[in-house]
Specification:
The chain contains twelve helices and 13 strands. By secondary structure, it is of the alpha+beta class. A hairpin with a 7-residue loop joins strand 6 (163-167) and strand 7. The chain binds nicotinamide-adenine-dinucleotide.
């Protein structure tokens, strides 16, 4: 039986931001990072939630993440910018890039920002979805350290580079695809390993590049299976092109591991694009059409045993709505780690330890 704590999102945001701030991140930027992590927890994407704080702080402490970098504009046009993230936290430069896109979009119906020399930016959807508020379609990608082999390869050479597309709707939730390009994230393999369970075929490969059902073989020198085989691999390649090759950033094994290379900068690159809907269609009309589209998709007769049809991102929005009302269920291990980080930073955690209900699931 696992123990969970019920934590209010605002409490989690306040404590996470205070911990970051005490570790040298300016107040405003601390809030940006905390908001992105807590949004992932709210949406049930806990692999990209506050459990990442510990590794961010470790890397800040090791001085392989800069707490307050200047972002350098490497190249700029009316509709595009190439930024150097100065090796700061990925979320901080990502928020800067999204805000910059909104400015660029006033001059140009399609605008894009590439970022090099950054770090982990959390869930890609958090950035893409911000653009839907301004009647834009957002497209966001990031490259990552090598986790997958090219087809025919025996070892990891390319990241499970995430991709997100976000489209505004009228009465419905925005359509938000947010996916890694591996068939499952590493977290699921680690989870099976910790429970002593085998994994299905198609999740991971051993050190010889052969499919394996043993999670130990994946973790020890193996790699992740690209989603859809060569198609996921191809998408991951294109993410590297748009993020790193366009920004002259690091790619493939030039990117260091966030968890294993604790003394080297990560050197991640990102890509952000905004498409202004009014350049193609009246935004209100477009959103009505998106609603019609969603209604049509959701009217598909249900397969035997299925309960509902969801649009991309819908499950995460439903989770968010529920968790905003009821609080976020955080595993005891994550709460303990947060309390430890807070105590080390001299941040008051009484709201976390004192007033929250402990539950058994
Ligand atoms: N920053 C990084 O380095 C990095 C790297 C990899 C992944 N990630 C993040 O990890 C997160 C998880 O990625 P993932 O690939 O495991 O996501 P996932 O497999 O849980 O979901 C992928 C997509 O499928 C949709 N989906 C899932 N079930 C559905 C259903 N039944 N019906 C309709 N749509 C459905 C989701 O809404 C989502 O858009 C993402 O936020 C991604 O950005 C980040």
């Amino acid at each position: 039986m696992s123990k969970f704590y019920n934590v209010q999102p605002e409490t989690l945001k306040t404590i996470s931001a205070a911990i970051l701030n005490k570790n040298g991140i300016p107040e405003r930027e601390s809030k940006v990072v905390a908001a992105s992590l807590v949004d992932a927890d709210l949406k049930g994407v806990s692999s990209h939630g506050v459990l990442r704080l510990a590794i961010y702080l470790k890397r800040l402490g090791n001085k392989v993440i800069h707490p307050n970098p200047e972002f350098e504009v490497i190249k700029e046009t009316n509709s595009t910018v190439v930024l150097d993230g100065g090796n700061g936290l990925g979320q901080v430069v990502s928020q800067y890039a999204v805000d910059l896109l909104k400015v660029k979009a006033q001059q140009s119906p399609i605008s894009a920002v590439t970022v090099r020399n950054s770090n982990h930016f959390g869930a890609a959807a958090y950035w893409a979805a911000q653009l839907t508020d301004n009647d834009m379609i957002g497209i966001v990608m990031s490259n990552v350290e090598p986790l997958m082999p090219p087809p025919g390869g025996a070892s990891a050479k390319i990241g499970n580079n995430p991709i997100s597309f976000a489209v505004p709707a009228g009465d419905h939730y925005p359509i938000v695809l947010d996916m890694a390009t591996s068939s499952v994230p590493l977290g699921k393999i680690l989870n099976a390993k910790s429970k002593g369970e085998s994994i299905p075929e198609g999740w991971g490969l051993n050190h010889l590049g052969q499919s394996t059902t043993d999670p130990d073989e994946v973790v020890n020198g193996g790699s992740l299976f690209p989603v859809g085989g060569p198609k996921g691999y191809g998408l991951a390649v294109m993410v590297d092109v748009l993020t790193a090759l366009l920004s002259n950033g690091a790619f493939s094994d030039q990117i260091h591991s966030m968890y294993n290379d604790l003394d080297k900068p990560n050197s991640i690159s990102h890509f952000f694009m905004a498409i202004r809907i009014d350049a193609f269609s009246d935004p209100s009309f477009f959103k009505q059409i998106v609603d019609q589209y969603i209604t049509s998709i959701k009217s598909t007769p249900l397969a035997q045993g299925a309960n509902a049809i969801f649009m991309p991102g819908e499950i995460e929005f439903l989770n968010k709505e529920k968790n905003e009302q009821n609080g976020i269920q955080l595993p005891e291990s994550v709460v303990k780690e947060l309390v430890q980080l807070a105590e080390q930073a001299g941040v008051d955690v009484s709201e976390l330890t004192g007033t929250t209900a402990v539950q058994n699931n």
